[in-house]
Amino acid sequence: MTDAFQTKKALDFCTGDKVLATLEDVQKELTICEKALNEFMNSKRLAFPRFFFVSPADLLDILSNGNIPSKVMCHMPKIISAMETLELLEEGVRPFAKGMHACVGKEYVEFTEQKKLLGKVEIYLQDVLDLMRGSLKEISLKSLKKFSEIDKESWIVQDPAMVTLLINNCSWVIGVEKSFANFASGDKNAVQKALDHQLEDLKGLIMMVQGDLTKPVRTKIMCLITMDAHSRDIIDELVRENVVKVDEFQWQRQLKGMYDAG
Questions:
Q1: Residue 257 placed within a domain
Q2: H, E, C per residue of the chain
Q3: Which of the listed residues 131, 146, 161 is the one where a domain comes to its end?
Q4: What is the tens place of the pLDDT at every residue in 75-124?
Q5: CATH number, domain at 53?
Q6: Are residues 17 and 73 in the same domain?
Q7: pTM of this structure
Q8: Domain count of the chain?
């Protein structure tokens, strides 16, 4: 390094005695290290495929801090879309995950159970994903039950946005297919009644959005209005085309939400 400082010309220094050979050896060793590092990171990506969406620099930071989950939280938006961070219950170095915060609307969803973040980072992140899915499924089932027990305006503000939008679609499917069953039982205006009910729901949402709401609830209702307007158009088409059976193409072609309790 002293010779390099005195020479002050990279080309002259690098072509000096033994310098070029030394640099070539260093380059070979660096290539071996890079190959080993890439193989190591690829093994982590295969173990937890969401790491494929993370840059190599961020992945290195995640892996180097994997034993301290709180230091991994800053990377959660890159690992799980729309998630800002996990709510951690600190108990020593290894905390419990008790909920998740969304990037959009700053919503918070509490998990149905607390999970201690143990093992390697790819292991406990997969545990978090499984816990997320299980929690949302359980919350969705409870929301579906509440939907038929309370008025829609009260129901809308109680659950996370993702659950509300899902169950709203599920309830629409249940209502339309129930109208088909009522038609088969002799009610010739059953599908028209389903359309009338959809129009009333849509009017109720429009009335709600005109009131004083928090930003997250307003955003949620605006999404519901968009979905319900589309659902209204579908039922209107069913009425105009005299569709009265579940297995008819005009209904089968629709994207429908259904809750599978299995």
A1: no
A2: CHHHHHHCCHHHHHCCCCHHHHHHHHHHHHHHHHHHHHHHHHHHHHHCHHHHHCCHHHHHHHHHCCCCHHHHHHHHHHHCCCEEEEEEECCCCCCEEEEEEECCCCCEEEEEEEEECCCCHHHHHHHHHHHHHHHHHHHHHHHHHHHCCCCHHHHHCCCCHHHHHHHHHHHHHHHHHHHHHHHHCCCCCHHHHHHHHHHHHHHHHHHHHCCCCCHHHHHHHHHHHHHHHHHHHHHHHHHHCCCCCCCCHHHHCCCCCCCCCC
A3: 146
A4: 999 999 889 999 999 877 789 999 999 887 678 899 999 999 999 999 99
A5: 3.20.180.20
A6: no
A7: 0.76
A8: 3
15 in the same domain as 101 = no
262: confidence class by pLDDT, cuts 50, 70, 90: low
107 with 174, same domain: the answer is no
Range of the domain at 54: 48-146
- pLDDT, one tens digit per residue, over 55-84 is 999 999 999 999 999 999 999 999 998 899
Q: What is the pLDDT of residue 3?
A: 75
